[in-house]
Structures are given as C-alpha cells and as structure tokens.
Give the backbone structure.
Amino acid sequence: MTEKASKIYRNIQTKFTDIISQNHLDLSSITIHSRGLSAEEAIGKTERKDYPILTGSEVMLQAEYKGAFGQAFTDAPSDYSGSLKNILEMDIIHDPHARGVYIASLNAVLRYLGLIENTVHCRNAEPPECAREYVLWLSERFPAGTHIALIGYQPSLFEAISKEDHFDLKVLDLNPENVGQIRFGVRVGHGIDDYGDTVLKWADLVLCTGSVFCNGTMDRYVDIDKNVLFFGITGAGACYLLGLDRHCPKSA
C-alpha cells in the first residue's frame, strides 16, 4: 500500500472517530454485526449473471448498527460481531479483512446518524434500470465526446455507457478474467498497467467504483486533478467524510 493510501485511511479514521465523539455514541454497549451476504441476498434475482458477486470475485458485507444497514463489496470478506470501540481500533491499513468490516460499519453508523443515504445495493431488476438512468444523468451533465474511464467491472453500467454515442469509453479492472477481454465492444484494460495512459492522460471523467476503498487502491482516484465520480454503495461513508462526489440512484 502506498503512503498516500495509508494517509487517506488515517484521514477517514480520524474523521469517523470525531463524528462518533461529537454524537456521543456509546462505544461499548452497542454491538455491530457484519456478515457476508449470499448473491441473492445482495442483489436479488437478476437476468444477467456477470456481476462480480455472482462470479465469485467479490462478496458483499452488510453491517447493522441500531437498525441501520451499511454494505461494502470486498474480496476479503469476514463475519464480525463486536463493539463500535473494536471497530475503531481495527488496522484497516494492513488487514484487508478488517478493512471490509470497517467500511461496511462506517456506512451503517453514518446512515444511522442520517449523514448519508444509499447504503444498500439495488436489487432484482434495478441494476440495469440504474445503469440506464445513470447514463441519462451523465448525458445531461457532460458534453458530447467526453472521455469516460470506467474503473471496475460493473457490467450493466459498462454496457449502457458503451451503447451511448455521446461518450467515448475505456474500462479498467483488476480481475484477470476480465482484463484483455473485449466486452460490449470495448477492451478491458489493466487497472494498474493501463492506469496512467487511461486515467491521467486520456480521461475527462473518471467513473470509479467505491470498492477501491476496500481494496486499498483509492489513492489513484482521490486528489488526482481529474473529475472523479464514485458509484455504488461501498464508498458512501468514505466519500462523505472526504468530500468526494458520488452518485448511486437506485440504492436504498
């Protein structure tokens, strides 16, 4: 992990701890529960079967705090039950399993406090509906010919943008099963090897999965002098704390 990534995590931890203190939340008596959801629990029954959670490359963790739910996609899942104090003491810089629990719990607590919304993934027929709505939303805000770098293999969003003549699209991912493949007429690039040419040199808009906050690669997309927009539920709390833009229209 880079020093910049470590600094971002420390910043998130400091801001989260401050909010908990300001709101006088009980650190010891309230238990946070976190567990990995099955694919059907996470996104329901969907027509397409190429979502990362269905192919086994990611697991969705769900944390509950006083009836509020927060979710996070991670490739290092871990079930957890413990106090908020234990959450705050987790080593999210060095332990990817702790990181997923922490991010999901962060989303649940901030949702409980009413500071964020859209922390529960859309389900059933909603993901493709979300993608279509997302493209319309983007088209109203960005001019024709905008170069979009999509970070993360979100197939509904990928397909919807690829069909839109309004935009030029490149896609980066870290899953070796996707990298180098032609999907929806677009070659999937490597999230590290192709990062400089695609994100820093080519893109006008970087559309980035919030999962980068769980896999420790968010340093490539925070404070990079580019227009970056995060999507999905994972980055809800982190984006709020860091003042980053996020759009996730169909999540609950």
Residues 126-242 form a domain with the Rossmann fold fold (CATH 3.40.50.150). The two ends are 32 Å apart (CA to CA). Residues 3-22 form the longest helix (20 residues).
